[in-house]
Design brief:
CATH topology of the largest domain: Alpha-Beta Plaits
Number of helices: 5
Pfam families: DUF1697
InterPro entries: DUF1697
Strand content: 15-25%
Structural class: alpha+beta
CATH architecture of the largest domain: 2-Layer Sandwich
Largest sheet: 4 strands, antiparallel
Radius of gyration: 16 Å
Protein name: DUF1697 domain-containing protein
Length: 183
């Protein structure tokens, strides 16, 4: 059995795509997932499942959510080892920053620097981003809501063909904790 996190993109934001967490837990339990729990209202669920392909679990959950709630939701599923590796590979000094300053955008597939070649890093300083394994790390000293770089990075053409969903550093760390063996 493996602990996973499901990252749901764009739910419960601004009154759109309302998905009550209690109903999500019930749905996931009905799919046969064990030890289901949600974290916050913004689309994180952790669960245990027989060792399976994370993409297959994401596809199953995506289909079940659309069938039950009547709207599509992009879902990424990642296991503890991956989440821990993303945390450990952070290129910014996470311990010295507040959670609002550091974010990770989880991506459905690996990306190369060429995808971001038309973004001038110097134009956005002191904000910065770095690429990781199916992840993009963003340092935004004034927070995501005020970040001009985050605005550029969130344009649909930047992540065309990918599922991309962003979490602040507190959530990144909490998902590692919640998916740890024995959690």
């Amino acid at each position: 059995m493996t602990r996973y996190a499901a990252l749901l993109r764009g739910i419960n934001v601004g009154g759109n795509k309302k998905l009550p967490m209690a109903e999500l837990r019930t749905l996931m339990s009905g799919l046969g997932y064990d030890s289901v729990q949600t974290y916050l209202q913004s689309g994180q669920a952790v669960f245990t499942a027989a060792d399976a392909d994370a993409d297959s679990l994401a596809a199953e959950l995506t289909g079940a959510i659309e069938e039950r709630f009547g709207f599509p939701v992009d879902v990424l599923v990642r296991d503890h080892a991956y989440l821990k590796a993303v945390e450990a590979a952070c290129p910014f000094p996470a311990a010295e920053l507040t959670a609002k300053q550091l974010h990770v955008t989880y991506l459905s597939a690996p990306v190369t620097a060429e995808r971001y070649a038309d973004i001038d890093p110097a134009a956005h300083l002191p904000e910065e981003f770095r690429l990781g394994d199916r992840a993009l790390y963003l340092y935004a000293p004034d927070g995501l809501g005020r970040s001009k770089l985050a605005e550029v990075l969130s344009r649909p053409r930047i992540h065309k063909g990918l599922i991309a969903t962003t979490r602040n550093w507190n959530t990144v760390v909490k998902l590692v904790e919640l998916t740890a063996p024995g959690a």
